[in-house]
Specification:
By secondary structure, this protein is α/β, with parallel strands linked by helices. Helix content is 43%, strand content 21%. It contains nine helices and ten strands. The longest helix has 38 residues, at 54-91.
C-alpha cells in the first residue's frame, strides 16, 4: 500500500499540509504518516566563570537546568497537541490508515530514514515564522526537496479543490520524470493538465511536448500543451494566476546551491510567487 509522509510543525501551514496529504491519500489509496521533528534547540548554559561566586554560580546553573527541563516538557506537550489535532483533522476526511511519529533531532535525517517506504512527501511552503517572514520560504523546504528521493508536494497556505494543473515543461530530465510518474499515477486522475513551455516553438521541444502529452493520454489523463513568451518564472506565475490553475508541477533545483546563491533559483522564485501548491520532482 502507498504511504504519504506529511511534515507538520504547528505553524499556520499545518492544517493545509494535512488537507493536501488527505487529498493525495484518497487519490492514491494511501496511508498517511504525520511526522513532527523537534529540532535540537536546547539553550546553551551561560559561561559564568569569574563573574559570580562558586556557590551562586552552582545555584544559577541548577535553576537554568530546571527551567530548561520545564521548557522541554512544554515543547513536547505542545507537539503532542499539534499531532493530536492533525490526526483528528485528517481522520475526518481520509479513509486510509493514519499514523503519527514524533521525534527529536534533524528533519532531514528522520526523513531519510522513513521515506524509503513512502511515495510522496508533503511539506508547508513556510514554517513557524510564516506570519513574520511572508516573503521567505521555510528554512527546511529547499533542504528537504534537495535531499528527498521522493516527489515533494509543497502545500500552499490553504487547501482548495484541485482540478486544473500546469506542468512547467522545460524538456529536462526532472520534468520528463514527472510526466512519466504522473502518467502512471491516479494522483492526477480527472485533472485538466496543461503543459507550458516558456520559449520559442522549435521542432525538438514540440516533439518532446507531443510525446509527453501522448504519454499522459495513454495513462488516461486529460492533457494539452502550448508555448509561452517571457521569463520562465514570471510567465508561469502569470498563467497560474490568470487561468486559475490549482496546482503547479515542475522539476526542482537543477543547479547547485552555490550557483543558486550567485544568480538565484527559478524553483525558489516559482514557489514564492505562485499561491498554489507545487509538486516538485528531482
Amino acid at each position: 500500500m502507498s504511504k504519504i509522509i506529511a511534515c507538520i510543525d504547528g505553524s499556520i501551514y499545518t492544517h493545509s499540509v494535512v488537507d493536501h496529504a488527505a487529498w493525495a491519500a484518497e487519490r492514491l489509496t494511501a496511508s498517511v504518516e504525520l511526522l513532527q521533528v523537534l529540532g535540537r534547540g536546547d539553550i546553551p548554559a551561560a559561561d559564568l566563570s569569574g563573574s559570580i561566586s562558586a556557590d551562586a554560580q552552582q545555584k544559577l546553573l541548577n535553576e537554568l537546568a530546571r527551567l530548561d527541563e520545564e521548557r522541554a516538557k512544554l515543547i513536547q506537550q505542545r507537539a503532542r497537541m499539534v499531532m493530536d489535532d492533525a490526526r483528528l483533522r485528517i481522520s475526518a476526511t481520509a479513509t486510509g490508515a493514519v499514523s503519527t511519529v514524533l521525534r527529536n533531532g534533524d528533519l532531514l535525517e528522520t526523513l531519510s530514514e522513513r521515506e524509503a517506504s513512502a511515495d510522496l512527501v508533503v511539506i508547508g511552503k513556510r514554517g513557524e515564522a510564516a506570519d513574520f517572514a511572508t516573503a521567505h520560504l521555510g528554512s527546511n523546504l529547499e533542504r528537504v526537496v534537495r535531499a528527498s528521493r521522493r516527489p515533494v508536494l509543497v502545500a500552499s497556505r490553504a487547501y482548495a479543490t484541485i482540478d486544473k494543473a500546469l506542468v512547467a515543461f522545460d524538456g529536462g530530465s526532472s520534468i520528463l520524470k514527472a510526466v512519466d510518474a504522473l502518467s502512471r499515477s491516479q494522483l492526477m486522475s480527472g485533472i485538466d493538465i496543461h503543459l507550458v513551455c516558456v520559449g520559442k516553438d522549435i521542432p525538438e521541444m514540440r516533439r518532446r511536448l507531443e510525446g509527453a502529452v501522448a504519454q499522459l493520454h495513454a495513462g488516461g489523463h486529460k492533457a494539452q500543451f502550448r508555448f509561452a513568451d517571457g521569463v520562465p518564472d514570471k510567465a508561469i506565475a502569470g498563467i497560474v494566476d490568470a487561468e486559475r490553475m490549482n496546482l503547479l508541477v515542475m522539476g526542482a533545483y537543477g543547479h547547485s546551491r552555490i550557483r543558486n546563491l550567485l544568480i538565484g533559483s527559478t524553483t525558489t522564485e516559482m514557489i514564492r510567487s505562485c499561491k498554489v501548491p507545487v509538486l516538485l520532482f528531482r
